[in-house]
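# nightly structure sweep
# worker-07 picked up a monomer target from the shared queue
# config: single-sequence mode, recycle default, output format = structure tokens
# input follows
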Amino acid sequence: MSGKPDKPHRIRVKTLDGKPRDQSALNKLKSNQLGMPHLEIVETAVATEFIICASKDTHIEQARTKLHAAGLEEIAGGDTTIAAPIAPPPAPRHAQHGGRQQERGGPQRAAGSYRQSGRQPRAANNARPLPGKPYAFVALPDDLTTASPVWHDGTRSENRLSGEVRFELETLTPLLVGWERGEVGGNESDWPVPANLAGTQLPGKKSVLCPLRAPWGKRPVIIPGDSLKGLLRHELGALLGAPMERVAERSYSYRPNAMYPIKPENRFLVPRLARVLENYVETKPIDGDYQVRVPTRLELLPASLEYNKKANKFDYRFDQQGGSPYRGGQGAGQKLNSRPKVHTSLTVLKTAKTETVDVPQSARDGYLATIRHLVDSDYGHFSERHPDVPKVVKGEDARRRILAAATNEVFQPGDLIWVEWDTEKKCIVSLGWHYYYRWAYTDSVRKRGGKLERHGLFPLDKERKTDDDGAPMELSAVRRLFGYAFDKENPGVAGVGEEKTDHSQLMGRVFVNAGLEVVGANDSDDDRFLKPTFLKELGIPRPSAVEQYLKQPYHPHARPSDNATLVTYGDAAGYDEPGELAGRKFYLDRKDAYTGRPWEDNSDVNKQNERSTLALEASKAGRRFRFTVRFRDLDATELAAILVALCPDQFKRVLGGTHNDGYCSKLGYARPLGWGSVRIEAKQLLLLDETGEVPALEPEADLMAWVTRNHQKTPTQDEWLAVHRRNHPNAADYPRKDGQIYTFHTALRAEHSRNRRYNQGHAQ
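# output follows
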């Protein structure tokens, strides 16, 4: 606003998430979310509060009904006096690295609301570029497009194409598209595996994988049509820029004290002991039926207290008689999956001057979010993905114990707890009942700030709008080609079509047949298949690996907020800007797969490892398969997209590809180990001609010319093509530390937890 508004009817509101909004977000708020562009929204001296102004009282009443959906609530009796306009804070460097447009479900995060160091990015101490890995990502475009559905009633068949494309697939590295997974000694399998193979006694639960084979002749290998369709759908999703449908929700947390910030110079976040005060604990609802204890004011002990085993200097000790109550471990004094001993008391040995401070609302909200994360057995810390669940602790047992502690036991008057203290702002950032407490990231995989729908993981607005018959008004590119089925349990498709109507599902217009191996008369099994192969144990990449699953615009340089180099899901509200998902994952073609056998591990340890796989009848490099893709009522551009998506090497000139080794795709099992590199070629395009007396399939004479005429470049095309490079320069095995994948990732995040405590560019 250029001046003071003259609209007399006003209310004061605040944001539900406690986060500020910049002017751009306010403009979108009134136009897009409130749907009332005639309103004026004025910033106040409080960054999270605003004044809504209208020329008519009825407009204010209309706005009141929409506040909650827009992430706002009215402040009853709030001051609506408007002073001179306040200029919005400058956008940080974060926004220059792919800042996202409006997220659905609430206003955009204010770009200037995160801590800035005021320094130019510089190399962090000892930070090295992240090592190579077996996969890369294709980012989602900012704009995800939609178009009207094509129904199967023939009303939109005019000027559209129907027919089929005949493809041939060649294996560049071994290929195994698993059809059946069994165990050694299993009697129910059609292909029982001897317990003793090549002189090795195998464990009874050793996993074994084999392909599907036809029952005739030399039993050619069959690549299931669903696998080929999945490949095509994944390629088109990235190439055309469509939402990702099957990204599972996950929430994650970190340990602020995973590595102690040793050197005091330029350290602005420090761990401190604090004592819970009587009458300064409130209860807050969580999970419907539970009231969680939350401290509102604490007595801080000095940050100078030491516990140094190397120097044999102890200003406090654990488990001495007469100590203050202390609830060690995740189980608050009871063992869950933690180390054998948990501390139950703490004695301060040094006379200490204390100070009393409030626990800010942001820290209280963060603590509640952490409890929700810890007790969420579906998507949280103790979900089935936790390595200790269920062998060490059952998820439901962990949930019950943490809820019992959080509601009845922790934060009793006199308890000693730990907080993270900001020495510059003089405030508490995070807190927990034991030193290695966990703190939930502000974002999860699917949600921003716990509420906003993350870009590209949900159906688009126009897909959720329906006509009077319940049909979606428009569909995104992949759903328009492959159809949809109503599924309220999957948030990636929920809301597309209406349940129990004629439009609860839509059949696709693309149909992929199975691929059949081409077997020559003289081809023997030795020519076709590898010998039984003991594969290395596959890594399990998880979205918790922020260094790989989130865009990293700064590493190895320090990020603007502190000396850490990694962008995470948001360490603490107001301190660092949470990251954006890297996009769709694609496995890369590895150079060493052509010169060695990086997939194999014949050690006795691996042969006895029940988590690694024994592969039978994997197709050798150089084997050929044929399959057909049939289509109905496609636009020419849609058909061209299918052709280039499956055949990037064949149409590399159309795509602008200049990589000397050409391009390939990845299919099947053990792709990160080097298997599954394939090159697909379109052999013939046949288009349905219905102008004659009898409909006929007519071959396209010059396929290359046809694709050149009809292909339309997409915003993600160059990035998509780059991940398909054969002999990809960035492809490598999973990074390891001390021989372990897990150790590499945990070491990175532990170092991050320490670096984030220092101002940019300073040593630890």
